[in-house]
Design goal:
The chain is an alpha/beta fold and 235 residues long. The protein is 38% helix and 20% strand. The strands form two sheets. It has a nine-stranded mixed sheet, with helices on both faces. Helix 1 (25-40) links the parallel strand 1 and strand 2. Helix 1 packs across helix 3 (67-91). The radius of gyration is 17 Å and the shape is globular. The relative contact order is 0.17. This is Uridylate kinase. It is an enzyme of class 2 (transferase). ATP binds at residues 9-12, 52, 56, 159, 165, 168.
């Protein structure tokens, strides 16, 4: 395998499957099976999941909540998703542990870098819920932060699209996909692959990012093996 330790960022919306909200048992099982394959190959896997299939902090503003309360509700949504994936992984025979950035024991153990590394080095999948624990930060930022903290080789951003294009491929059929692209070129072109805070964290700390389609079974294993799946964002 090309990468020995990865931080996998999963979209909350993807966990809903064909539905608009909630959790899809089929998607959870597919993701868990793909993760099991790379763990069995000796790869250490940390995971951060969004919460958009349940609640987004920005949605709270439209519903009368202030931003801080809305973001806190979104953090709790990520913990629900983390617990669901933990259960799916255990169903596949994978040892998995939810760590939370907010003290929520016994729901999950309180996150620390040392604790995460200890589990990873013993072959456990570590799912870090609760975002950064602070309002005004997205789970993209949380995934960048955790990737840097656990000294991952790469941040893998699993999405519903198969990489980064020079335009929205759903609106522009002639859009061109990049196999590799630099952080500077993404910035110059104004491409939106993650929020600017997450983007800056990765660029300043030399953390490469691979954007790929997680919904196609087998893609995760190919990405971790170094196959040209998705788009690699490099320095």
């Amino acid at each position: 395998m090309k990468y020995k330790r990865v931080l996998l960022k999963l979209s909350g919306e993807s966990l809903a499957g064909d539905g608009e909200y909630g959790l899809s048992a089929e998607v959870l099982k597919s993701y868990a099976a793909q993760i099991r394959t790379v763990v069995e190959a000796g790869v250490q896997v940390g995971i951060v999941i969004g919460g958009g299939n349940i609640f987004r902090g920005m949605q709270g503003i439209d519903k009368g909540f202030d931003r801080v309360k809305g973001d806190q509700m979104g953090m709790l949504a990520t913990v629900i998703n983390s617990l669901a994936l933990e259960s799916a992984l255990r169903g596949e025979g994978v040892r998995a542990k939810v760590l939370t950035s907010i003290c929520m024991e016994p729901v999950g153990e309180y996150y620390s870098k040392d604790k995460a590394l200890d589990y990873l080095q013993r072959g456990w999948v570590v799912i870090i819920g609760g975002g950064t624990s602070n309002p005004y930060f997205t789970t993209d930022s949380a995934s960048a932060l955790r990737a840097i903290e656990i000294e991952a080789d790469v941040l893998l951003k699993g999405t519903r699209v198969d990489g980064i294009y020079d335009a929205d491929p759903e609106k522009h059929p002639d859009a061109v996909k990049f196999e590799t692209i630099s952080f500077d070129e993404i910035y110059r072109r104004g491409l939106k692959i993650m929020d600017l805070t997450a983007f800056t964290l990765c660029r300043e700390n030399g953390m490469p990012v691979v954007v790929f389609d997680m919904d196609t079974e087998g893609n995760l294993g190919q990405v971790v093996a170094g196959e040209p799946i998705g788009t690699l964002v490099r320095m």
